[in-house]
Design goal:
The strands form four sheets. A seven-stranded parallel β-sheet has the order 3-2-1-4-5-6-11, sandwiched between helices. A two-stranded parallel ribbon has the order 7-10. The chain is built from 20 helices and 13 strands. The protein is an alpha/beta fold.
Length: about 475
C-alpha cells in the first residue's frame, strides 16, 4: 500500500480531531492536513491545520498543493440541538457539495463520508434491521433527516461521475462513549429518563472508539459503497436505562409528544425531533457488510452502555482533574521548533517525521527548476545542495570582504558560470532566499550539522527569518540532546 496523504474536513469537530489523532499513529500515513474555520479542539502532533471553511476554490488549492489522495469528510451535523436549521443545512448540504467539487478531477483517489443512520428515519413499519441496499421507506420528517438524504445524494452522484475515486459512505448508529456529547447521552444523564407512554423501542449503539476505528478502516482499506456502522446486539430502551442505573418514567404522551418535548425544553431538556421518532419506534442496522470487509468491533451495544455507565459513576470524582486542550498557534510553533524544549516527548524525533519526509520530497521536486538542483536527486542530496550553496556563498562573501579590506576597493562578485553548467552556488542561494519559511523548514531534518550551521549563518546575514532560525536552532539542540542522552 503506498503512503497516504490525507485531508480531514471538520478538524475542530470531535470526530475530526479523534480521527487525526488515530491516523497520526499510522506510519503508512505520511501527511495529514486538517481544515476547519475554527481552532482544533484536540492536541495533535503532526497534523497540519489550515483555517479555511468549505469554499471549494480554496479547498481545491490545498488538495492540489499537498497532492492529497484521501479525503475524509467528518463535518456532518446529525443533532439539531447543536445548531440552527439554517446553519445545519449550509454545513450538511452546501458544504458537502463544495467539498465534492474541490475533489473532482484532482489527485483524490479515496473519499470517505461520515453519515448517519438518520438517513433511514424511524417509522412503525420499519424492518427489524436496515441493510445498506434498502432505501428510505418514507419521506424525511425532520430537517436533519432531509439534509442527510440530500448530502448522501450528492456523494452518490459524485461517485457515479468519478469512478476512479473509491467513495465510501458510513452510516453510524447512535454513539455512546465517555467523551462524546449527544442528545442521547444528555438524556441518559438525567436521574429519571423520560420515555413515551406505551413504547419501549429497540436501541442499537456504537462506541465512540469504534466510530474512529471504522473511519480509519475506510482510509486504510478498499471499501467502496455504503456501510452501516452499528455494534452487535439490540437493547430495549428500558433495559438501557436499567444498565445505566437510572430510573425511567413515561412522561411523554403517545400523541402530541412534540408539544410535551417543547415543554421540557423550557425546563432545560432539549429532545430533538429526530430523536422523538427513536423514542417511539427505535431502529436497528444490519452490520454484516462492514464486518465482511474485515472490520471488527471492540464493543457490543451492551458493552457500550456499560462503558457509559462506568464513566457516569466515575465522572463526578474525576471531573476537573485535567484541563481541556486549547489550541494556540504560537504555542504549537514553540513546541515544534524552539531549541529550549527539553521534554523527551519532543526530543524523540530529531529527524523528519513521515509527513515531513513526504513534504520534503514534494517541495524539493517542485523547486528543482528554481534551485537548479537535478530533479532526480534524492531528498538528502537536494537538502545538501542548498547547504553547500549557502556555505560557498558565505566563503565567497568572507573572501571578498577580506580582499576589499586589503585593497580598499569594492568586493568583486563571483563570476557567472556558463549556461551549459548547473546553476552556480550564488544562483542557488538567491533562489533559496525566494523560498518560503515552510519550504526551508521541510529540508532541515535531512541536513548535517555543518550544513545547518552554514545555512543559519547565511540566514542571519540575509533575511533573518525568525521561523527558519528557530527551526535550525531546534534541530541542532535536539540532536545535541539526543547525543548526550
Amino acid at each position: 500500500m503506498p503512503p497516504l496523504r490525507v485531508l480531514i474536513t471538520g478538524l475542530s469537530t470531535y470526530w475530526g480531531g479523534r480521527l487525526a489523532q488515530a491516523l497520526e499513529e499510522d506510519e503508512r500515513v505520511e501527511a495529514i492536513i486538517g481544515v476547519d474555520n475554527r481552532d482544533p479542539t484536540r492536541e495533535l502532533d503532526r497534523t497540519e491545520f489550515v483555517r479555511v471553511g468549505t469554499q471549494h476554490a480554496l479547498l481545491r488549492r490545498i488538495v492540489e498543493a499537498a497532492e492529497i489522495d484521501t479525503v475524509i469528510d467528518s463535518r456532518l451535523v446529525v443533532d439539531s440541538v447543536t445548531t440552527s436549521s439554517r446553519k445545519a443545512h449550509e454545513n450538511n448540504v452546501i458544504g458537502t457539495m463544495n467539498i465534492l467539487a474541490a475533489c473532482s478531477g484532482s489527485s483524490v483517489r479515496r473519499f470517505v463520508f461520515k453519515s448517519s443512520a438518520h438517513y433511514y428515519g424511524t417509522a412503525q413499519d420499519d424492518p427489524a434491521f436496515f441493510t445498506e441496499s434498502m432505501g428510505r421507506p418514507h419521506p424525511p420528517k425532520t430537517r436533519i433527516e432531509r439534509d442527510i438524504v440530500e448530502a448522501e445524494a450528492s456523494v452518490r452522484d459524485f461517485a457515479e461521475k468519478n469512478p476512479q475515486v473509491t467513495t465510501t459512505i458510513m452510516r453510524f448508529a447512535n454513539v455512546l462513549g465517555p467523551d462524546v456529547k449527544t442528545s442521547h447521552t444528555t438524556l441518559f444523564s438525567l436521574p429519571v429518563v423520560p420515555t413515551i407512554l406505551g413504547f419501549d423501542p429497540r436501541y442499537q449503539f456504537v462506541h465512540e472508539d469504534d466510530v474512529v476505528a471504522a473511519l480509519a478502516h475506510a482510509v486504510r482499506s478498499d471499501t467502496p459503497g455504503i456501510y452501516n456502522v452499528a455494534a452487535d446486539g439490540v437493547l430495549a430502551l428500558t433495559e438501557v436505562i436499567d444498565l445505566l442505573g437510572k430510573q425511567w418514567a413515561p412522561l411523554l404522551p403517545p400523541w402530541g409528544a412534540g408539544v410535551a418535548a417543547a415543554a421540557l425544553r423550557r425546563l432545560g431538556l432539549s429532545i430533538p425531533p429526530e430523536m422523538l421518532g427513536q423514542l417511539r419506534f427505535g431502529r436497528g442496522l444490519d452490520n454484516r457488510k462492514l464486518k465482511a470487509n474485515g472490520f471488527r468491533y471492540r464493543y457490543t451495544s451492551r458493552e457500550a452502555v456499560a462503558a457509559l455507565a462506568e464513566h457516569m459513576r466515575l465522572h463526578p470524582v474525576m471531573r476537573g482533574a485535567a484541563e481541556p486542550y486549547r489550541y494556540e498557534r504560537e504555542v504549537e510553533d514553540f513546541l515544534r521548533w524552539s531549541p529550549h524544549v527539553k521534554s523527551p516527548a519532543y526530543r524523540a524525533q530529531p529527524r523528519l517525521s513521515p509527513a515531513e519526509t513526504g513534504e520534503l520530497a514534494r517541495l524539493a521536486d517542485a523547486h528543482a527548476e528554481r534551485t537548479g538542483i537535478p530533479g532526480g536527486a534524492s531528498p538528502l542530496e537536494k537538502a545538501e545542495s542548498l547547504a553547500r550553496a549557502a556555505r560557498a556563498d558565505e566563503e565567497d562573501r568572507d573572501e571578498a570582504s577580506s580582499l576589499g579590506a586589503r585593497e580598499g576597493m569594492e568586493a568583486p562578485q563571483p563570476a557567472n558560470r556558463p549556461s551549459s553548467e548547473p546553476a552556480s552556488n550564488g544562483d542557488a542561494i538567491e533562489r533559496y532566499d525566494d523560498l518560503e519559511p515552510e519550504e526551508v523548514v521541510a529540508l532541515l531534518g535531512s541536513m548535517e550539522r555543518d550544513d545547518l550551521l552554514a545555512l543559519r549563518d547565511h540566514e542571519r546575514a540575509a533575511a533573518a527569518r525568525p521561523r527558519i532560525l528557530a527551526a535550525i536552532d531546534g534541530v541542532l539542540a535536539r540532536r545535541e540532546a539526543a547525543q548526550r542522552g
